[in-house]
Amino acid sequence: MDTALINLIIFVALGTVSLVLSVLAVSSKSLLRSATYLLLVLLCTAGFYLFLNYHFLAAVQVSVYAGGVVILFVFAIFLTTKNDEKMVPHERRRYVLGALAMLAGVALTAFILLKREYLYRDNTSMLGDAELSMQTIGQTLMGTEKYQYLLPFEVLSILLLACIIGGLLIAKKK
Amino acid sequence: MIKVEYYLIISTLMFFIGIFGFITRKNMIAILISLELVLNAVEINFAVFNRYLFPHQLEGMFFSLFGIAITAAETAVALAIIINAYRRIGDININDVTRLKG
Q: pTM for the whole thing?
């Protein structure tokens, strides 16, 4: 077997697994299981980033999402869910309407996405020979020129500070 | 070579599975988990378009990067609000949390 076929097989397996796990994450009865399925979906997404040769993005995805956000979820679930609590379902009408909205959205978006033709035939960078160097990422993140991102980086750090303070204030015991 | 459409189909389905969960779940944390799925799908799209259509630039990848960080911040604040609501009301179903003033 050649590499392209193996890549395709791995990709299809990854995509199927991530979609099945997404469905389980939104339909599971137990919240803790939902959070676990979400963790696995996020890890599959890191796999997609590896396929696209964005190694740094995959590392960030694993460490921030899988390491940080999901842990936050698990602790919040522990703090707010009683031991034998059952999930209360909505009325049936809401499921039907939700499924209709979902199907309509998928149909519309897939129609628009697949009707277009994407011109990338001569682009060889996704074949695996174009790893993004750490130096490029660092210079782009820390530069002040056009297409460089120091200002958003600093704004983001202020946002995170505001979130820490806000989170502490909101969750503080009176 | 994997076609760009495959990625787009996967991210579209993931996005709308998230929307479905957002509509049909009652627990606030479950709603937040659905929201994570939606944001995750969007970030896949940014990275895919960047790699396939504009491989010599880095905009999409950095958008994904900042998106991940903003998602983490948003989750932290939302979970703080949920824990606070649980402390005041004793429940985190959206039907019971109708008075945020407390």
A: 0.89
> What's the distance, Cα to Cα, between the start and end of chain A in Å?
65
Q: What is the pLDDT of residues A47-76, one digit of tens each?
A: 999 888 888 999 999 999 888 899 999 998
d(CA B102, CA B97): 9
Chain B residues 61-90 with CB within 8 Å of chain A? 61-62, 64-66, 68-77, 79-84, 86-87
| Interface membership of A36 toward B (CB under 8 Å) | no
Q: What is the pLDDT of residues A125-153, one digit of tens each?
A: 656 566 778 888 888 888 888 888 899 89
ipTM of the complex: 0.91
Contact B27 A87 (CB under 8 A): yes
> Which one, of A68, A48, A3, lies nearest residue B7 by Cα?
A48
* In a shared domain, residues A44 and A110: yes
The fold adopted by the segment(s) B4-89 is Helix Hairpins (1.10.287)
- Has residue B3 got a pLDDT over 70? yes
